[in-house]
Amino acid sequence: MVKTCSKCGKGPTLAKGLCRSCYDKAWYKANRERKCDMSRVWRIQNLERASENDRAWVASNLDKYGEYRHRRRAHKLTNIHEPYTRNDIYERDNGLCFCGELVDLGNYVIDHFIPVSLGGADAPWNVRIAHPRCNSRKHATIPTFDEIMDWCDFLEVLDISDLESFLVMIADMFELA
Question: Could you tell me the domains of the chain?
C-alpha cells in the first residue's frame, strides 16, 4: 500500500510523510535565505547560461513576460494595477483596434487609454487592443474630451464596475476633483 502525503493527500511520500512537492515547499520555507544565496551565486558564476535560460523563458512565455513588465512599470510609477490577460482584452474588444479595423490575433499590442506614463492605471478598464502602428502613432498623448466620453460609453456598455475609478483618474489628471 502506497502512503499518501500528510499535507495534500497525494502519494507517494518521501521523507517526513510528505510528497515531493510538499517536501520541496517545506524545505524552501525553512531554507529560503540559503536558497536565494545559492541561486544568486549560481547566476553570477553562470551568467551566460542564466541569460540564455531567461531568454528562452521569455520566448516561450510572452504573455506572462508582458504582464510582468506592465505590473513592474505601473508599480514603479505607483499606478494602479489590476490583473488582466491580452486574450481577455482581445475578446472584450471583439478584435477591433481603436481605429475601427480588425486586428490580427498574432499581431496586436495593448494600448493604455490614459498612458501609464501620464498616471493611467494598468487595469482592464484603461486598456484596449491596437495595431502596433496605431499605438506607436498615438504615443503618450492625453485623449480629447470626446474620446474620453466615447470610452466612458464603451465601459458602460460593457458594464464595467470600475467606471467610477476611471472617472476619478480622469478628474485627477485634469485636476477637476
Answer: 15-58 (no CATH), 62-173 (1.10.30)
